[in-house]
Amino acid sequence: MEKMSRVTTALSGSALTGRTMHCHLDAPANAISVCRDAAQVVVAGRSIFKIYAIEEEQFVEKLNLRVGRKPSLNLSCADVVWHQMDENLLATAATNGVVVTWNLGRPSRNKQDQLFTEHKRTVNKVCFHPTEAHVLLSGSQDGFMKCFDLRRKDSVSTFSGQSESVRDVQFSIRDYFTFASTFENGNVQLWDIRRPDRCERMFTAHNGPVFCCDWHPEDRGWLATGGRDKMVKVWDMTTHRAKEMHCVQTIASVARVKWRPECRHHLATCSMMVDHNIYVWDVRRPFVPAAMFEEHRDVTTGIAWRHPHDPSFLLSGSKDSTLCQHLFRDASQPVERANPEGLCYGLFGDLAFAAKESLVAAESGRKPYMGDRRHPIFFKRKLDPAEPFSGLASSALSVFETESGGGSMSWFVDTAERYALAGRPLAELCDHNAKVARELGRNQVAQTWTMLRIIYCSPGLVSSANLNHSVGKGSSCGLPLMNSFNLKDMGPGLGSETRLDRSKGDTRSDTALLDSSATLITNEDNEETEGSDVPADYLLGDVEGEEDELYPLDTEHVHPEEPEYVLPQEAFPLRHEIVDTPSGPEHLQDKADSPHVSGNEADTASLAPVDSSSSLLSVSHALYDSRLPPDFFSVLVRDMLHFYAEQGDVQMAVSVLIVLGERVRKDIDEQTQEHWYTSYIDLLQRFCLWNVSNEVVKLSTSRAVSCLNQASTTLHVNCSHCKRPMSSRGWVCDRCHRCASMCAVCHHVVKGLFVWCQGCSHGGHLQHIMKWLEGSSHCPAGCGHLCEYS
């Protein structure tokens, strides 16, 4: 024992020294507590109960309090506390509901002193009185708090919170008789130990269980609480009603909270799950922690400042079976990694931009806001020189107002109200929506609807108006499936360009082939024949290339006096004899639309014989290849939907999803569909487009969205005869056995839309009630109630 005494008093009267360090424990820790002189720390858990000496370079194990051959549940600790007046006194809260005190001054190996077995369930917290040596307080899962006098064998007082389990109890540092308790129902209670019959004050502090609390060491009335709602709140208890002073938003449930010594606005927190780090917050800056310790690899279960007057050392225990000492100067500062600029749009389109004052110093020459929308409004935060982060908080806020009408969303509302999403064939839906988009000046969206019409519908049904719009205004021909051009109108004449010029040594081919990018010619073996390098637009009527590139001729082994070459009648083997027929737009249109023309014949490019007077080259080219199934374009349609969604036009993405239905649903994952639908529905509801929103929910392809209009839809209806609430699902009252859906005007059962007055419960057909109330304000049932319909 003499050795233990020297360890506990070695650092008495001297300044603390040390570094950031850790040691491995035999088992996960549930709680830690520091002795009065900050030289030792006790670690307790389900399978560990040891005391470690805190030396300058390491932790040294000094005493193991788990003695005996048989394991006891009394040693399975949920919490531990070291008395701040008696260095030999400890108390633990066992998971079996037992409160145990330990006397380190006992000469035997077993230091256990007293057992209190009055709690029926797990004890969550134990706390010694800060100035009274023999007073111990406990809070249990059974909802009771008990005050023990260590000179007696039983508790002296029992406090009932009339609520669920007690999660934390803490004696006030400044008020001798006051202690605070937190509960799982979100309440915080203040008690006077002299009055166990009722609490002095109770208030709801959090939305969910309150896991911890801590009194401020300097400010008498400040109480910090942490809960499952991921918040730490600071309350002023000196007022008549508890007043919330500060609120810190964390990222996980708060398991422990401890005020930092000598720093009025700083407190440390750790989380119950998910987050393994320890944060030190300045409550005046509630969104960015002032410091962060990242040493632990599992949930931190206990934190304690090493000395009540030293803010530099923080001790912690974790489920990763480690005990750490953190030096505050070694902590990382998240504010240094935070983005110093902020950008946000307002509800009405205004743009706010915040940045460091040094970055906007060059803009200080701008005129103040006097109504000119081109100039921003400037705000500058007034700095408090006493703030430790005043330099980092120096910022300027600029607010830019949008031009009047520039942020108008009228097109969104008009599109939502005019779009057709169901009830018609797919071709009509695409044509209608394309027309709506074109009338609203959204040409790209209209083009998209037209392309979807072409991809998923029969090409023969495409209207010439939509097709010409999709092809472009450069085409002067009204043919929906083919274009033609006259060789005579191309310039000096194709015949002169085809003559051999032996002096220039041009080499030309005796076969004219079409461009492969424009069409693929199918021969008898059903093979694809490559063409020349003529641009595709040339065959569609937009002449951009040179004319001699169209029909090159081969001059090799040609007699110099040979006459001029002309285009052959056919450049490839024919399946059958071509019958000479008049070549003209009318004939080609009739033949293309004829049901007796095969697909290969319609896709064949033919060259007419050269005439000395004029030559007409007609190219029949289907814009849509009937041999390509719609699934061939699935990847393209999917990318198009993602493009519109990324551009912010979720309306287009959702509308296409509904219109195409199963054709495209399999290509978009369920989570993405649900995200698009919920975003679009939220926008519709913001613009009060309730009917459109309900239609989108009803027609949605996402299972999670289609059930939205079937959840939380409850109507409480009273019987119009006996005025009692109707508990059954039908329209027959359980009490008077009469039908509640009788029309008060025509006295017939309403089978369609039913409207009723919430004051007297009478109603009927919508048209009948509207017509009745046009001439009278009294209820048509004769009850005398003044009904209103708006």
Task: Give a topology summary.
Elements: H1 2-9, E1 21-24, E2 31-34, E3 40-44, E4 49-54, E5 59-64, E6 77-82, E7 89-94, E8 99-103, E9 112-116, E10 123-128, E11 135-140, E12 144-149, E13 155-160, E14 166-171, E15 178-183, E16 187-192, E17 201-204, E18 210-215, E19 222-227, E20 231-236, E21 243-249, E22 254-259, E23 266-271, E24 278-282, E25 291-293, E26 300-307, E27 310-318, E28 322-327, H2 334-337, E29 342-345, E30 351-356, E31 377-380, E32 395-400, H3 410-418, H4 426-439, H5 443-456, H6 464-471, E33 482-486, H7 494-498, E34 521-522, E35 528-529, H8 536-539, H9 585-593, H10 599-602, E36 616-620, H11 634-646, H12 650-660, H13 662-665, H14 670-686, H15 690-699, H16 703-706, E37 754-756, E38 763-765, H17 766-775
Antiparallel strand pairs: 1-28, 2-3, 3-4, 4-5, 6-7, 7-8, 8-9, 10-11, 11-12, 12-13, 14-15, 15-16, 16-17, 18-19, 19-20, 20-21, 22-23, 23-24, 24-25, 26-27, 27-28, 29-30, 30-32, 31-32, 33-36, 34-35, 37-38
